[in-house]
Specification:
61% helix; alpha+beta; four-stranded antiparallel β-sheet; single chain; 10 strands
Length: 635
């Protein structure tokens, strides 16, 4: 009975979403003032219904109600309670329901924006309600999480996918979906501004606050996703340019560009149309990524919820959202008030160029992700686009952005063009010398990485010293921290990608291998029995150069009983910044296994840099949120 209540609550929420969306028909009419007052209680009721419906599904997981198909396919009686809760977004139906729940909640939050003297908040809520209506219809007709397995109810569930039984499932997907939700608010705000012809538009501070929320959650989502893949997939990779990874990375790049165009719009009244187009693009690329990885048109090692039968529903939702938005932009944009042109050569002009480079980077990644699908759809066969394409296209663009970032960071009062060029030459020479010292045949990617990291770091240190001298460091702290986080991440990625040491060896009891000054000695192999799997577990002693024992690692090779799938559980020795990573491969004899030993230098800088960026985003949001609501109209 409880699942039926949840299903009925979703139907009520769908009806309320349609009702609120219909208020757009009365914009500009006398009745709009009355409907605007009705918007807030109705959106609150819609969000409550969606919340209670989601709670009923979580309850079904907790009580092991295997008559619900979604619960039976993603849980069992032995699953820990926290994974049962996280299983809500562990599959297709539940993850779309979680996304929809977030949309209904932010719709109610936007409708509560009383501080605006115009009707921007209720109008944006009306547009959000349209999107809610589309998502709720998609859930009810193609992705119903409350479908029953009647009359044959299984005694036991199939269990959650083993690769999902990790803390990464608890951290990564919710962050990404919350970032998508915030991008949806920006989409609705842009549509409202365009349809209102500027007469009921929000100020740029409103857009900046929601974009900072999106950027914060997407930063953490990508960071936790990378960390999850590094620890769980078993071979120590942290980024694969996989379609699922790109699906959340592309919106993050759009959000980065939007942060800078919003800054220019607020300070210089410039790039108004670009800002609105980016607001539309963020949510659009989120839907495109969802279509690519959920419809099954592109295969991914991360895709656990692909279903070609639902691809058409996602495509209809995608087209019904993006096409009208582009039509509205094309018709309304020429009538909006133009921003102030930026003076060539100025710092603001360089920020604009950096923003355009970020946009170029985002759509180059989107092109590489979609190209196999486009190539196949044109009947040209099959093709794969891997790391060589993305590295060749993406890294030079990022290097150019890093150069512009450092250039505009340097204080203008004391650093003229001659001083900046001299600093750039010194950084380039230092990076070149370091690259040649480490490897005379070093790839150009390593040189670009060192130049970018050293250049940003040098400029930030000089700028921070200047700001501290003039008591302005606190004013620029969020942007300084965010750019510092980028420099730390680039340095970590450069060192890790170019100085990783790895060996694939046959190991059995008594065998040893030296990697990066550390010795791995294989002592024994044990068989481990678990209710869900059986595993062969190696015991490996790690010694330093003086043969002192540092630790023991226990890599495993598991075979799961449910579907007989195999998975590698790595053993990792953590030092201050680096890792020694052991993966246990298949058996090559009765007592020997193929073992991959990898030394990951400075891998910790990846996570430190990402966390610094996320903290900077939270600090910027707090500062923006506490500002007085002085309006800076977007158009």
């Amino acid at each position: 009975m409880i699942p039926e209540i949840g299903h009925f609550l979703l139907i009520i929420a769908t009806s309320l979403a349609l009702l609120i969306a219909s208020f757009t028909l009365f914009w500009g009419r006398p009745i709009e003032a009355y409907l605007a007052r009705m918007t807030q209680p109705l959106t609150l009721l819609m969000a409550t219904c969606a919340l209670l419906a989601t709670a009923t599904l979580v309850y079904a997981f907790l009580v092991n109600d295997f008559s619900v198909a979604y619960v039976a396919h993603h849980s069992n009686t032995h699953l820990a309670w926290y994974f049962k809760v996280a299983a809500l977004w562990g599959g297709h139906e539940g993850s779309i329901l979680f996304w929809t729940l977030g949309l209904t909640v932010v719709t109610a939050r936007v409708a509560a924006g009383h501080h605006y003297p115009n009707r921007f908040a209720p109008r944006a809520s009306n547009v959000l309600a349209m999107i809610n209506f589309g998502f709720l219809l998609f859930v009810l007709f193609t992705s119903n999480p409350f479908s029953r397995l009647l009359p044959e109810v299984p005694v036991e569930g199939r269990d959650l996918n083993p690769m999902l039984q990790d803390i990464g499932l608890i951290l990564h997907p919710p962050m990404v979906f919350l970032g998508y939700v915030a991008l949806t608010v920006l989409f609705a705000g842009a549509i409202t501004t365009l349809l209102s012809r500027g007469s009921h538009s929000g100020d740029s501070g409103w857009f900046r606050r929601w974009n900072l929320i999106a950027w914060f959650f997407l930063t953490l989502g990508n960071l936790f996703g990378s960390w999850w893949a590094y620890n769980e997939l078993g071979w120590g990779g942290w980024w694969f340019w996989d379609p699922v990874e790109n699906a959340s990375f592309i919106p993050w790049l759009i959000s980065c560009a939007l942060l800078h165009t919003l800054h220019l719009n607020r300070s210089e009244n410039a790039m108004t149309l670009t800002t609105l187009l980016l607001c539309l693009s963020g949510f659009s690329v989120s839907l495109i990524g969802t279509f690519l990885v959920r419809s099954g048109v592109i295969q991914s090692v991360h895709a656990f919820a692909a279903d070609p039968n639902r691809g058409m529903g996602i495509l209809i939702l995608l087209l019904a959202t993006i096409l009208p938005a582009l039509v509205v932009f094309a018709l309304r944009a020429p009538r909006l008030k133009r921003g102030t042109p930026l003076r060539g050569g100025s710092n603001h002009w360089l920020v604009m160029v950096a923003s355009l480079l970020l946009i170029t980077a985002a759509f180059s990644v989107l092109l590489g992700t979609c190209y196999p699908f486009i190539f196949s759809a044109m009947g040209l066969g099959s093709i794969s686009v891997g790391a060589p394409y993305f590295n060749t296209v993406f890294i030079p663009i990022v290097s150019l952005c890093a150069g512009l970032l450092g250039w505009v960071t340097l204080p203008q009062a004391t650093w003229n063009i001659r001083n900046k060029i001299a600093l750039a030459v010194m950084v380039i020479l230092a990076a070149t010398g370091l690259s040649l010292y480490q490897d005379s045949s070093a790839p150009v990617w390593m040189w670009q990485g060192f130049v970018s990291a050293f250049w940003i770091g040098s400029c930030l240190l000089i700028a921070a010293a200047h700001q501290f001298k003039h008591a302005r460091l606190r004013l620029h702290l969020p942007s300084t921290l965010a750019h510092a986080g980028v420099a730390v991440f680039i340095l970590g990625a450069t060192v890790l990608s170019n100085f990783e040491q790895a060996a694939m060896v046959r190991m059995g009891p008594g065998n040893g291998k030296v990697v990066a000054g550390l010795t791995a000695v294989y002592e024994q192999t044990d068989q481990v029995e678990h209710r869900a799997y059986r595993a062969m577990q190696g015991t490996v002693r790690i010694e330093d150069s003086r043969e002192h024992t540092l630790t023991y690692l226990y890599p495993q090779r598991r075979t799961y009983m449910d579907d007989m799938s195999e998975m590698t559980i790595a053993g990792v020795y953590h030092s201050l910044l680096s890792d020694l990573y052991l993966s246990m491969g298949p058996a090559v004899s009765d007592s020997e296994y193929l073992v991959r030993i990898s030394y990951k230098p400075w891998v910790r800088l990846l996570w430190i840099g990402g966390l610094i960026c996320a903290f900077a985003g939270a600090l910027a949001w707090r500062r923006t949120h506490r500002e007085t609501h002085r309006e800076y109209p977007l158009c």
